[in-house]
Design goal:
Elements lengths: L4 H14 L4 H18 L1 H24 L5 H5 L3 E2 L2 E2 H10 L2 E6 L8 E5 L4 E6 L9 H12 L8 E3 L2 E2 H6 L9 H7 L7 E2 L1 E5 L5 E2 L5 H10 L11 H17 L11 E2 L6 E2 L15 H9 L5 H6 L5 H8 L10 H25 L1 H4 L4
Antiparallel strand pairs: 1-2, 3-4, 4-5, 5-9, 6-9, 7-8, 10-11, 11-12
């Protein structure tokens, strides 16, 4: 439950200062005090930001590809684990369902789907659990591509007929059939809407996904702290993850079991994003506190941030048939959080210099 107005601001200030955010905490205090003034000038700021965003975006796109179209950023990294996004998305959208098996370990309904061609997907239906909103996984995937990332598994809307959902369950899942019937939301056409994501064959929990590991992450991302050479590549991914989670307002990442890596532990996957895209313009309290403790960032991600503007997100997250992957209000909140990141990082650059702040490519 969100606290209204000034009470939220006071709790936010207290939470950040008590968290020992250092320079980030002092910066946050200035930001919170300026927030209402910032909102009052939001229309003017948005107009000005749009002009500067187009110029910065053009520079970035030319740097990446020599082309000025917004689609270039989406095409800059169009493979996932060596397979084309188009191939993976086509499978999860169109392949007939052969079997569904309920995944365990979470509070929401999530399935492994085996398709007729032998491929697999993770599928989350529209359900009574209000914290799980399947369309938001699709939004996270598309935003990740807009930013030039390939960390979120390809995801697309996918409805499954009730006959398939209830009639093709794995034997191990049959005891859960009453729960599945009770919690899935059936559409008027006999379909259960949802989203399907590419099923990564082997994943494991990060060795930093623990209270002690989170403290180590904070330490390594603080100015003056040395990151061990063998950890630099992974920590560069974590630095991107914290900013990405702030942009999508995903407070669930560090609740345990949501920092998944490749089998060898070298690659970090940004999975499970259905509890995200809240309307907080300055991010959720948890995401904001993590961001304001971070003092080292990816230069490439920072250069890509101007691509996250209202018109681009509107085209990216509104389907041709009028379906909204994100609402207009959710899109505005993403843009506001992007502006928050840019102001915070600019303040750090003034204090420490660009070379030290942009510690990762």
């Amino acid at each position: 439950m969100r606290l209204p107005g000034s009470l939220l601001i006071e709790f936010t200030v207290a939470a950040v200062l008590l968290a020992g955010a250092g320079a980030g905490g002092a910066w946050a205090l200035r930001e919170v005090r300026a927030f209402q003034a910032h909102r009052a000038g939001a229309i003017r700021h948005e107009r000005d930001a749009a002009r500067s965003s187009r110029a910065a975006s053009l520079h970035l796109r030319q740097e990446l590809s020599g082309d000025s179209g917004p689609e270039v950023a989406l095409e800059s990294a169009r493979t996932f684990l060596g397979m084309s996004d188009e191939l993976l998305l086509d499978r999860i959208r169109k392949q007939p369902v052969a079997r569904l098996k309920l995944n365990h370990g979470g509070s929401s309904l999530s399935f492994r789907v085996d398709f007729a061609d032998g491929s697999r997907a993770a599928w989350k239906p529209v359900q009574t659990n209000a914290q799980t909103v399947p369309r938001k996984e699709v939004a996270a995937y598309r935003l990740n591509r807009l930013l030039g990332l390939d960390a979120v598994p390809p995801a697309a809307p996918r409805a499954i007929a009730k006959e398939d959902l209830f009639g093709k369950l794995h034997p191990d899942t049959l005891p859960s059939l009453p729960r599945i019937r009770a919690e899935t939301i059936l559409g008027p056409n006999g379909q259960v809407a949802g989203e399907a994501s590419y099923w990564i064959p082997v994943i494991k929990d990060s060795d930093l996904d623990s209270p002690e590991g989170h403290q180590q992450i904070t330490a390594w991302l603080t100015q003056g702290e040395t990151i061990p050479f063998e950890r630099r590549g992974f920590m560069g991914q974590v630095a991107v993850l914290i900013v990405f989670d702030f942009l999508i307002a995903n407070p669930d990442r560090y609740s345990g079991g949501n920092m998944k890596t490749s089998e060898d532990g070298s690659r970090l996957f940004f999975m499970d994003n259905t509890m995200s895209f809240f309307l907080d313009p300055q991010g959720t309290e948890k995401n904001r506190a993590l961001l304001l403790r971070q003092q080292k960032f990816s230069r490439r991600l920072q250069q890509a941030l101007p691509l996250v503007d209202g018109p681009t997100l509107g085209r990216l997250l509104h389907e041709p048939d009028g379906t909204e992957i994100l609402t207009d209000a959710e899109i505005r909140a993403v843009v506001q959080r992007r502006e928050f990141v840019e102001r915070y990082v600019a303040d750090l650059v003034k204090q420490y210099g660009a070379q030290r702040v942009f510690a990762f490519p």
